[in-house]
């Protein structure tokens, strides 16, 4: 038999080794746990309130009063760390059978709001109107809380700006409710989210409220003068303004 040349045997052995390495590489999985984690397999960051919507600002905020067939419903939220920590109804239907319905429904709605961290909560059986009003006011409070969330998280006074709404003050001509914006410990904006309306009240309100807003910012307190011809509106404004300042920490 003819013997193979030593050089030829070495070349064949090298070729076989290379082929084996290529085969092993072709059988390696396309990915492994380590590469999957590096590519984004780590757990996602916690979402903000309502599935990744804009965060809500810390503090206490009161939603607009929602009118129902049996009376107004108004919800106030306490927010800490971007989460609802407390929900309460500052207004709810009362008198007669409404007292029983309210005492049964409101605690459940408060608890549901904190658990859901949104206005997407179930109505309480037997309290359809109260539940609908509660959800409407709750959504209003959440919207206000989001509006007060700082857009700049880089620190400084801008990051500390927040909006607080005072309690609605009842007057002879209707409720007055004031919302303020505080930044760097100073009152930077004041506005009336509720004011008397209808008939002559429209003219009184349109004349008085801008003056009261300006006076509040200039004074930085609720110690402001009443607007001539708008005694009741001015008194309600000052009362609600003081409530907002108290919530904001003075």
Automatic annotation (TrEMBL):
Pfam families: FMN_bind. It comes from the Bacteria. InterPro entries: FMN-bd, TAT_signal. Residues 32-48 have a biased composition (Low complexity). Signal peptide: none annotated. Residues 32-62 are annotated as: Disordered. SMART domains: FMN_bind (SM00900). Residues 69-145, 172-248 form the FMN-binding domain. Gene3D superfamilies: 3.90.1010.20. This is FMN-binding protein.
């Amino acid at each position: 038999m003819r013997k193979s040349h030593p050089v030829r045997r070495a070349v064949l052995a090298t070729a076989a080794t290379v082929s084996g390495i290529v085969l092993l590489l072709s059988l390696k999985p396309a990915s492994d746990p380590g590469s999957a984690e590096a590519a984004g397999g780590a757990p996602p960051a916690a979402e903000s309130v309502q599935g990744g919507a804009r965060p809500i600002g810390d503090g206490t905020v009161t939603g607009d009063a929602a009118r129902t067939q049996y009376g107004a419903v108004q919800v106030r939220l306490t927010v800490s760390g971007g989460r609802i920590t407390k929900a309460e109804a500052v207004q709810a239907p009362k008198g007669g059978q409404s007292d029983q319905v309210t005492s049964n429904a409101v605690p459940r709605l408060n608890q549901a709001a904190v658990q859901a961290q949104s206005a997407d909560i179930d109505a309480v059986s037997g309290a359809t109107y109260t539940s609908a009003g509660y959800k409407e006011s709750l959504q209003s409070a959440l919207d206000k809380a989001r509006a007060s969330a700082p857009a700049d998280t880089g620190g400084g006074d801008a990051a500390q700006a927040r909006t607080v709404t005072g309690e609605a003050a009842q007057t002879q001509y209707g409720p007055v409710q004031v919302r303020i914006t505080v930044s760097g410990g100073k009152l930077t904006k004041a506005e009336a989210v509720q004011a008397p309306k209808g008939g002559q009240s429209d003219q009184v309100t349109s004349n008085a409220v801008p003056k009261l807003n300006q006076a509040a910012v200039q004074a930085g307190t609720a110690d402001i003068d009443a607007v001539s011809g708008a005694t009741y509106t001015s008194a309600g404004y000052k009362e609600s303004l003081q409530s907002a300042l108290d919530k904001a920490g003075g």
